[in-house]
Every structure is written in C-alpha cells, then in structure tokens.
Amino acid sequence: MPQSQSASKQTSNPAAINSSYPPLVLGSHNQKKKGELTALLAPLGFEIHDLSEFPNAIDVEESGTTFTENARQKAVEQAKILKMWVIGEDSGLEVEALGGRPGVYSARFAGQPFEERWKNDEANNDKLLEELGDLPPEKRGARYVCHIALSDPDGNIRAEAENYCCGRIRTERSGTNGFGYDPLFEIVEYHKTFGELSPEIKACISHRACALREFSEKLLQLFSKTTGMP
Q1: Which pTM value belongs to this model?
Q2: Which of 50, 59, 90, 182 is catalytic?
Q3: For residue 62, what pLDDT is reported?
C-alpha cells in the first residue's frame, strides 16, 4: 500500500473524524504549527497529519518572494508527491524600520548557522536587535504575517487565507513561550510579548490563529460543496 494511503488511516487527534472529509497534511515537520492547526480543525472533523508521517515527502525549497508564493509552493509540490490534500503555510515578521525585512527570510535572517532551531532563533533575535539598535519604541513597529494555502492532490490551489498581528519589537527578550521572534514581539495593548502571553490569549490574537480561523471557514465551505453536505 502506498505510504500516503497507509498514513491517512492513522488518526492524529482524538476528535471524531468526519469520514466525508479527506485527511489533510500540513506541509511541515513543525510540531507547534501542527498543534495549532489540529486544535482548530480537529473539532470540525478534520484528520490532520504532518510530513513526519510520510517518508516520501520532499524538501520544498522556498524560492518565493512573498508569503503567498511560498505557501502555495509548499502545498502544491507536496500534494503532487503525496497525492493528498496538503496545507502549505508560510509566515514571518515584517519590521517597518527595516523596510519589511526579514519577511520571507525570517527563519534564516542570521543565515541558519546552527542545526538546532532554538539556536537559530537566538541568532535571528540577536541580529534583529543589532539592526534596530537604539531606535525608540515608536519606530520599532512590526507585524507578523501568515498565509495558508490548500492544494488538492492534483496540485490545484483550492482555498487560501492570510492574516496579520501588529505590534512592536522590544529592546530585549522577555518570556519563554512560543518560538522565533516571540520573546521580542510585543502586543502593545497587553504590554506583553508573545513569549509572555498565555497560549489561550495567543490562540485568539496571533497572525496564525486569525488566518487559521478564516481558513477553516473556507475549508468547510469547500468540502460542503465537494461532499454535498449542507
């Protein structure tokens, strides 16, 4: 039996699966992203997998210049290989004072010198702080961006969503929750960084959470049409 078929029979969450929905594969190995996706989509009846379950999954080179291009690329290329519905997601940080950088290069802003992700996160944060220097708070505006795209098994994009979360960059790290630039990214209204906010609050206001909510609505619309459900 092909790997894509056998893996699709493994239930990735305890919620009741709607058998009329196809299993969905997150085009990533990132378990934190999978957790956020599963928390939102599993209660709706979707079965969620990630690339760690598929030995035949490929490494997709992120060659796009926008989050949209990269998300679509991740979804389409994996879908054609796995012959399954694949969700591609790309997200990152845009800083006003840096002309929108690091943008699509957020994960490799400092060049990815380490094998461990957390070390690269530290290097990226160090570089961001260095480039912003002693700019005052009002000139440290930034936003997180998330774009999500769904490809069918033939490589056609069938649903997309994009959303943002605005804040500013602090002058030093604070908090241990999250990953990436979270210890530096402050939500002004809360006077806390993403690294300090509880998972419950972050799940309500983050760029990925907002994009996922919009995306989930489009998924339900799409599969209600394709399955004939009301």
Answers
A1: 0.85
A2: 90
A3: 86
